[in-house]
Amino acid sequence: MTPDARVQAQQYYLAAGRDMEADLAALAAHPQGVVLLMPQLVALMKPVLSSEPHLWPELEHIFPVADAWYVHLLVGSLPLARSMAAPLPPLRWLCFQRGLRHERPHLLPWAGLFRKNH
After folding, report:
1. Full-model pTM
2. Average pLDDT of 26-39?
3. Beta bridge partners of 74
4. DSSP string, the chain
């Protein structure tokens, strides 16, 4: 049986000592925030400016100009995430940080998310 992505997300937040409710509320109030809470997929995203990674995790911060989608959290099915992301407004980059937020930021071309070999 595939683990429930919502439970995995809650476990991540608990282990990281972070407040999932606050992050969900910040993104739900963001005019372009993305919040998906499904058994197969949890995705928390927002548009950001790729050159300002120190501001990416500030989920309430709205960038007047954005060139990237910041993936704050992604748990679950990557194929489902790709299909759900397809109708989003395309920006140049996809950005994220793995693990703890102090690790270096990653930038990938947004179009690369939809290539068949990934």
Report:
1. 0.89
2. 95
3. 43
4. -PPPHHHHHHHHHHHHT--HHHHHHHHHHSTT-EEEE-SSEEEEEEEE-TT-GGGTT-TT---SS--EEEEEEEEE-HHHHHHHHTTSPP-SEEEE--SSTTSPPEEEEGGGGG-TT-
